[in-house]
Amino acid sequence: MKAAVVDRAGGIPQLRDLPDPVPREGEVLIAVEAVAVENVDRAIVAGTHYTAAAFQAALPAIPCFDGVGRLPDGTLVGFGGLQPPHGALAQFVTVPAAYAPPIPEGIEPTAAVVLASAISAMCMRVAAGLEEGETVLVQGATGVAGRLAVQVARLLGAGRIVATGRDDAALADLQRLGADEVISTAVTDDELVDAYRRHRGDGYDVVVDYLWGRPTEMLARALTPESFVMPKPTRLVHVGESAGSSIRLSGDALRTSGLEIYGAARNLATGMQAAYAQVVEWIRSGDLVIDVTTMPLSRISEAWQRTDLRGSRLVIVPD
Ligand SMILES: NC(=O)c1ccc[n+]([C@@H]2O[C@H](COP(=O)([O-])OP(=O)(O)OC[C@H]3O[C@@H](n4cnc5c(N)ncnc54)[C@H](OP(=O)(O)O)[C@@H]3O)[C@@H](O)[C@H]2O)c1
After folding, report:
1. Which residue of 68, 149, 262, 305 has the fewest CB atoms within a 10 Å radius of its CB?
2. Are strands 27-37 and 234-238 parallel, antiparallel or unpaired?
3. Which of 12, 16, 21 has its CA nearest to residue 2?
């Protein structure tokens, strides 16, 4: 079979011929139909992700560890649970049968492979308990996950949606997706604090945070009152760290701001099934649109090096 192989840390995947995998007992053979290339996959290959050690130890190895494909009987399934050096950027994979659940009918493989990013946006309801009419702030809204979160906020009935990003053209496009107001984070710290304050209206009820780092520090500053008042709570859900893996949070920002910080996994064990079903329904009905850019496996080296796909998920498909 053809597969994309990385030889060294930080290397570019190269197309190679490898033997077809043979399923062991309890495993299924899957013909791969779609694999999403995400920042986390690039970070694992680069050796900068906290889970990168296993991949680096297994080099040469095939990157990306989940995707969508077909069982020999034609059933479309999602698959995961691959362990380096065996990755998803190949014509075939074998995984334990339990790691290959069927994809609901009516969902294209290229959309199914981005479902996890759409479901991450449901944290605004599952983790933060978003109610209709509340104000949502999406941090990192110009990214793939953030653009989905803006749409999800609209579909969940948010009263006002404020979206942040770095690129003015991409921010303008967010208004088409449902954002009421946008904030550029590509300004000085003081300007950013001021912008968060100007756009807060009667308060941000829920923040879906794909950024962390400096913008979230400035948000915490903006939420901290300058006099003895009791602001209403702001339930911030930390989902990603595109702008930094840590923040400095002063004590007063927690004591007086009303800021409550949750992880995206909060309530997922009980809320995942309903979140998944809702996202699938919206995709089927066309209410939630996932932006993907497909490229064939044979062009993996070129695809891996693309930097122009802001807001669109790179999905590798068979030739
Ligand atoms: N927990 C989950 O289930 C889950 C699911 C999906 C994503 N995530 C995480 O969420 C984050 C976003 O994922 P994604 O797929 O949407 O990535 P993406 O498409 O690359 O988008 C990243 C977003 O962050 C912005 N950004 C990047 N670097 C920044 C910086 N230094 N300062 C300010 N803004 C910056 C980007 O702005 P530009 O548009 O200007 O580049 C964009 O809005 C990642 O950390 C990802 O791992 C988590």
Report:
1. 305
2. unpaired
3. 16
Mutate to test the pocket of ligand 1, among 49, 168, 182, 210 (most ligand atoms within 8 A of CB): 210
pLDDT tens sequence across 284-297: 999 999 999 999 99
Same domain? For 166 and 294 the reply is: no
Ligand 1: which residues within 6 Å by Cβ?
Answer: 38-40, 116-117, 120, 140, 142-146, 165-167, 170, 185, 210-211, 215, 239-243, 264, 310
Tally of structural domains, the chain: 2
> CA-to-CA distance for 193 and 216, rounded, in angstroms?
10
pLDDT tens-digit profile of 30-48? 999 999 999 999 999 999 9
Range of the domain at 34: 2-114+290-317
User: Do 78 and 132 reside in the same domain of the chain?
Assistant: no
How far, in Å, from the CA of 228 to the mean position of ligand 1? 35
- Predicted confidence (pLDDT) per residue in 84-97, tens digit: 999 999 999 999 99
Question: Which has the higher per-residue pLDDT, 163 or 232?
Answer: 163
Nearest CA to ligand 1 atom 18: 143
- Please return the burial class of 183, using the count of CB atoms within 10 Å of its CB with bins 0-12, 13-18 and 19+: buried
The closest-lying atom of ligand 1 relative to the alpha carbon of residue 119 is 3
Token pair recorded at residue 98: 């339990």
Question: Residue 205: its pLDDT value, please?
Answer: 98
pTM of the model: 0.94
